[in-house]
Amino acid sequence: MADKVLPMREALRNALREEMIRDERVYVMGQEVGAWDGTHKVTRGFLEEFGARRVRDTPISEMVIAGAAVGSAMAGLRPVAEIMTINFAFVGMDAIINHMAKVRYMFNGQFKVPMVLRCATGWGNQATATHSHTPEPIFAHFPGLYVGMPSNARDAKGMLKAAIRDDNPVLFSEVIALYPKPGPVPEDPDFVLPIGKGDIKRPGKDVTIVSFGRGVEWSLDAAAALEKEGVDCEVVDVRWLRPLDTALIFESFKKTNRCVVVEESLPYYSFGSEIAAQIQEHMFDYMDAPVKRVSAMDVPLPYARDIELMALPNVQKVIAAVKEVI
Amino acid sequence: MADLTKEQLLEMYRQMVLIRRFEERCEELYAQRKIGGVYLHLYNGQEGTGVGSMFALKPSDHVITAYRDHGIGIAKGADVNRLMAEMFGKRTGVSGGKGGSMHLADRSVNFWGGYAIVGGHLPLAAGIALKSKYNDDKEVVLSFIGDGATNNGYFHESLNLSAVWDLPVVWLIENNLYGMGTPVEVSTGQPELHKRAIAYGIKDFGRVDGMDPLAVYAVAKEAVAYAREHGPALIESITYRYKGHGVSDRLYQRREQEMALYKARDPLTVMEDHLKQLDPGVESALAAIDAAARETVEAAIRYAEESPDPTYDDLINHIYA
Ligand SMILES: Cc1ncc(C[n+]2csc(CCOP(=O)(O)OP(=O)(O)O)c2C)c(N)n1
Ligand SMILES: [Mg+2]
User: A35-40 long-range contacts, Cβ below 8 Å, gap at least 24?
Assistant: First the structure.
C-alpha cells in the first residue's frame, strides 16, 4: 500500500479509527470527543460512525477520566482517553501516577492496564502560563508508564497504533502545533512503529542532536543551516521518553562524540538533564565536549508575544548550541 | 431474616468471626513486629457492613475498597493464607509481598483491591462498571467508600460519571463516624451522607444500621438488583471501628463511652442473637465456627511464616506487562 500525504491530525484519526474497527474493545472517551468532533478534531465523525457506546463524551472531570480508563482497562477494555490539553492532566495526576502506572506492580501482575491517555501538548500562541506546559518528562519519571510524543504525521500514526495495541498504559502526547503539518503516511492498517524505538531523522557525523516532538523540526532546520557552514549534524528523534532508546543515542554519540539536547520543556530535572547524565555515565570515554541543552527558559510563560518567544527554544538557539560543542 | 437459609446465616456468621479473629491476630503480630510497615487499618466492628452487603452479590460481581481492606478481601473469598502472607510481606502473598496491608487484591474472586489514596479507587470502580455495561455483562460493582472519602474530588467526579453513564455500581459509604480523627460533622456540611446521592441523580437507598448484617444485607440486595437493571445506587451504613484509624492511633482510646455504645451492638453478637432466635440450640454450632476460625487464622500465620521472601526478580518484575 502506498503513502498518502496527510496532516498529523488525520494520521492520528486514521490510526484511531483503524484500531477501533480492528478491535471492538477499543473505545474513546474524553471531553468533547463526540458531538463536538474532538477539541482538536482528531475524532471527527467518530460519534456518527461508532455510536455513543464507543465514543463517550465525559464531564470536565480529569480525575475520573484517567481513573475510569484505568478501571475499564484492568477489566478488559482498551480505552483511549483524551485529555483536552496536557495542562489539565495535572488535575488527574494522582490517577495517572498512582494507579495508571502502579496497579500492575502493586498487585503483583494480576492486572494489565492496556490504555492510552492522549494529551494535546505544547505552548501555543500566547496561551500563557497555565496553558503552555510541555511536561512529558514529569510523567516519564515514573516506572509503569510509557510516554511517547511523535514529531511528524507518519510517526504519529505508527506510534499511536503501537500504543493502542500494547498491553501497558501509555501517555501519548500530540503537539498542537504539529496537528496541521502534512507528511507522507502509510495507508497500511498494520503500519505500527514499535514502542521504545527511536529514529535517525538525519544522518550526520559531527554532532548528535537528541530531541523529540516539536524539537525535531528545529533540530532539522538547524542542521540544514549548519550544513552550509560545513557542520554535519545527526538528528536523533527518540520518539519515546520511556522506554528511552539509549542504544540509538549511544551509537550516534560514539560516532560524533558531541551532543546537543533539544526540548520544548523546562530545563530543571528535564529530558536534557537525563540525556546528559546518561551520556556522561555510559559514554564518558567518547566525550569530546560537554553536553549542551536547549530548552524553554526557566520561567512561567507570559502572555506578551515578544517575551513569550524570548523564553522559548528556536532554531537559532539550536544553532548556537551546536556551535558551542564543535 | 427474609430469604436466607440457616446455612446461609451461619455462613455469614462464619465470615464475620473469621474477619474478627484475623484482625485480632494481625494487631498482635504487628505489635510483635512480624507484620511490618507503618500502616495497618483494622476492620473490627465493621464486619456487619462488609459481610452483609457482599452477601447480596453473585460471585461474578465485583468488589473494590480503600486501604481498610482485610475484611473485604476475606468476605469476597480471597485465600486467607495468602492474605496473611501479604501482611508478612511474603512472595506467596496475594500481591506477592509488594502491596502490603493496604493493597490486597485477588483477581480470581473479583476482588479488585484495596487502594490507599483516599477516594482513588472510586473512578476505578466506575471503569470496572463501564466494562460490564459496555459488554452488557450484567455484573455489578460494589464500591466501599469511607465517610472521609466523600469529601474529595474523586467522590464527586466518580458519582457524577456513574449517573450520566448509568453504570451498574453500588456506592456503599461505610460511615464509621470518623476520617482518622475528624468527626463527620466537622468535615462534612451535610452529615447525612446518603443525601449526596440525590444531588447526583443517583438512587438513594438511605441509611442502614451497619451493626446488623441482616439489615445491611436486605438493603444491599435491593440496591444490587437496582444497579444491575438501572444504574448507580447509594447506601450509607452507620458503623463503628473499634480500633484506631491505624495501629498507631492513640486518640482513639479516649472515646470509651461512644465505643461502649457500639460494642453493645457488636455485629457478631447481633448475628448470634438472630441465629439463637431462629434456633435456640445453635450455640454449639457457633462455638464450633469460632474454633474453626481461630484455627484457620493460626494455619494462615504458619503458612505466612514458612513462606519465602520476595526476591530481586520480584522487585523488578510486573512493572510492565
Ligand atoms: C488523598 C489522601 N489524602 C489523605 C490521606 C491520609 N488518610 C488516610 S486514611 C484517611 C482518613 C479517611 O477516612 P475515611 O474515608 O472515613 O475511612 P476510614 O479510615 O474511616 O475507613 C486519611 C486522611 C490519604 N491516604 N489520601
Ligand atoms: Mg471513616
Answer: A38/A82, A39/A82, A39/A84, A39/A85, A39/A120, A40/A9, A40/A120, A40/A174, A40/A176, A40/A179
